[in-house]
Known about the structure:
Elements: H1 11-16, H2 19-36, E1 56-61, E2 64-73, E3 76-82, E4 92-97, E5 100-105
Amino acid sequence: APPPASRAFTQKERKLLSASTALARWTIKEALLKALGTGLAGDPSLLEIDRLGLRRGRILHAGHRLSWRLLTCPGHWLSIAEDRENPPSPTVRWLPVQAGCAARFF
């Protein structure tokens, strides 16, 4: 997949971007926007992801306490987010498929 447009990131994030971190940051932002209910109609540059070295984080945005978790799948990134501060950690079971990865959340 092509890297996301630089306008999707804050000025601070743009200084830290590489091809691999841009995709990971983008999937987190996409999950957070969906958790907010705005989806891709929301402005991703308003969300700053500063804890990328970790696989989970929290962000306060417009009065919402959002939590996110980043999962890896060979060749892909998967992010989940919820509009609450301490979401339960789902159990993720990777299912074999012929054309990539599939995850099932419990």
